[in-house]
Automatic annotation (TrEMBL):
CDD domains: HATPase (cd00075). The keyword DNA-binding does not apply. It catalyses: ATP + protein L-histidine = ADP + protein N-phospho-L-histidine. Residues 248-458 form the Histidine kinase domain. This is histidine kinase.
Length: 462
């Protein structure tokens, strides 16, 4: 019960209601004390009037009048004359005098609390105004014990009534909160539990229908989260299925390319000068294709294999990349340029770096070719004390909005129509494997610039 929202709300409600009743109780007990004293003054006035009407009252009748008024002495001031109307012996000296003709609220509360918590029976003098203006003032002497007993009885009645009101109000609020707040929240929790059991089932996605604004906002946020999560799970399943298919295709393709690799040995022995010139390129391409198939199979089992670092002559590697792309550039009128210091040497995995630069150059080539206009792709490099920086720039139309929003995300960040976005995703993974970064520096109608930063320190490869 205490661990539930409604149970804690019940306890807090009862506690605050009791606090409110306590704040009401203090001034009410003070008012009761004033009314009690005023009643004694009124009784004493009536008794004194009876004596004034007949001055020959016997001592026994006078004592009876004082007993009924519950006072010891009655002093009435009329016409500026102070007159002891009724009197009897005082059992103790007068300890305090209270004037209730024009009391302040703070004084009343202070005197009431003092009397309530002081168990001693004292004799006090009380001064008040006579009723119906039957004099200037009236004062009486009386005991405090009956006053305190009356205040305790009144306080117990008030506290009992307050506790009952607090309990009934708290119970009503308890059931109201359960109906208005807790039950809708439990409904949301049930939706979440059912969705957790079958997140792929779109029927388990919550439909916002709460009437409370805050709860409806929570349902709307949950609906959005569940929808996005269901789509992500479906996408992941498709990626898993595609990965399995790619692994099978790569396995078969590797076998085919291995056989083709054997055939190139005979091609290299040809006497045709053109064949002898192109044969090494063919062998290199087939070797990279075999390596890519093996890497794909490895990626299907775990992640991209870590780079095998070595010294790479960047100018030669970029020349090899450009030569691969130049074979298809004649039809598209794309010019390839490189601005690489001749002796610039990087510490990297040559095959992985080749794939990164090839992906960027090929994307730039395809982007320019899609426009049908001539263009340029430039690969440049520089270095500083901490990094090698390789830049691939083109004069293409720039990346579309979708590609910018989902850059480096597989199957979402394609830079051209029909593209899968795998090229940039793989390139970014390979660069991260070197401890570096692949960033989009700029894109727009004037072209696109990608920048590869590879750290020189070994600590970045930890």
């Amino acid at each position: 019960m205490l661990n539930t929202l409604s149970g804690r709300f019940l306890i807090l409600t009862a506690a605050f209601l009791m606090l409110a009743e306590l704040l009401i109780f203090v001034p009410s007990i003070a008012r009761f004390r004033v009314d009690y004293l005023g009643d004694r003054l009124e009784r004493a006035q009536i008794a004194s009037l009876a004596l004034l009407a007949d001055e020959m009252l016997s001592a026994d009748l006078e004592a009876e009048l004082l007993e009924n008024a519950e006072v010891f002495n009655v002093v009435l001031r009329r016409d500026a004359m102070r007159q002891l109307v009724l009197s009897s012996p005082l059992p103790a000296p007068i300890s305090a005098t209270y004037d209730i003709r024009d009391p302040g609220a703070v004084v009343l509360i202070r005197d009431a609390l003092h009397r309530l918590f002081d168990p001693q029976n004292e004799i006090i003098r009380v001064i008040g105004a006579p009723v119906r203006e039957a004099g200037l003032l009236i004062e009486v002497t009386m005991e405090t014990a009956p006053l305190r007993e009356a205040m305790i009885r009144y306080g117990l009645r008030v506290l009992t009534l307050s506790a009952s009101i607090a309990a009934i109000t708290a119970l009503l609020l308890f059931f109201a909160v359960r109906a208005v707040v807790v039950r809708p929240i439990k409904g949301v929790v049930n939706y979440m539990q059912r969705y957790a059991a079958a997140p792929e089932d779109a029927r388990q996605i919550i439909s916002p229908k709460a009437s409370l604004k805050e709860l409806r906002e929570a349902e709307t946020a949950l609906n959005k989260m569940q929808t996005e999560l269901t789509q992500a799970l479906r996408q992941r399943k498709r990626l898993a299925d595609l990965g399995s298919a790619v692994a099978r295709v790569s396995h078969d393709l590797r076998n085919i390319l291995t056989s083709a690799q054997l055939f190139t040995d005979r091609i290299e022995s040809s006497e045709d000068p053109l064949v002898r010139r192109l044969a090494p390129k063919l062998v290199g391409s087939i070797t990279r294709a075999v390596s890519l198939c093996e890497s794909t199979l490895a990626f299907g089992r775990a992640e991209e294999p870590p780079p095998t670092l070595g010294l790479v002559q960047l100018s030669a590697l970029v020349a090899d990349v450009i030569e691969n792309e130049t074979l298809t550039a004649d039809e598209t009128h794309v010019e390839f340029r490189r601005d690489i210091p001749p002796q610039m040497t990087l510490r990297a995995d040559s095959e992985q770096l080749f794939r990164v630069i090839l992906n960027l150059v090929r994307n730039a080539h395809q982007a320019i070719a899609a426009t049908g206009r001539p263009g340029q792709v430039t690969v440049s490099a520089r270095e500083d004390d901490d990094n090698w920086v390789v830049t691939v720039a083109d004069t293409g139309p720039g990346l579309p909005d979708k590609a910018r929003d989902h850059l480096f995300q597989p199957f979402q960040g394609g830079v051209r129509k029909g593209g899968s976005g795998l090229g940039l995703a793989i390139a970014a993974d390979l660069v991260r494997g070197h401890g570096g970064t692949l960033d989009l520096r700029s894109t727009g109608p004037d072209g696109t610039v990608f920048e590869i930063r590879l750290p020189k320190g070994d600590g970045a490869l930890a």
